[in-house]
């Protein structure tokens, strides 16, 4: 069954008619031609399709487009300010935190979500003080929080310092 929806992606509204079974990932890539989120496993296990939904990271291959409603979808492209790359984009380049680049948009969106979660004080599975006002974003915390994003090229050793550099620059407790 087809239904009318409007997806708000990277600050722009896009009216679409979609099958109710269409995933957000497929709507982004196939209908809107947004190639930032990638189709990796299509089962929510690799993180290549990670986008932000009202600022919270989600695997877009697991979200039905019809359920998004008025939420703002932000892709890695949408994190940039016009032609100026986001601090995470710049840090990934500066720290050589990518190789083939396939997973990079999902990694960057996930990293943006990690920084927001840490600023909000949300604990992870490795957080020592669950009652702290804000989370301390140690390397162990970054690794744990980014663990849903896989990189087949194994650029992990550079991803953690790239995220850490932005966390420090933004004043997130380290």
UniProtKB/TrEMBL annotation:
Coiled coil: none annotated. Pathway: Alkaloid degradation; nicotine degradation. GO terms for molecular function: 2 iron, 2 sulfur cluster binding; metal ion binding; oxidoreductase activity, acting on the aldehyde or oxo group of donors. Keywords: 2Fe-2S, Iron, Iron-sulfur, Metal-binding, Oxidoreductase. Pfam families: Fer2, Fer2_2. CDD domains: fer2. Residues 3-79 form the 2Fe-2S ferredoxin-type domain. This is Xanthine dehydrogenase YagT iron-sulfur-binding subunit. It comes from Blastococcus tunisiensis. The lineage of its organism: Bacteria, Bacillati, Actinomycetota, Actinomycetes, Geodermatophilales.
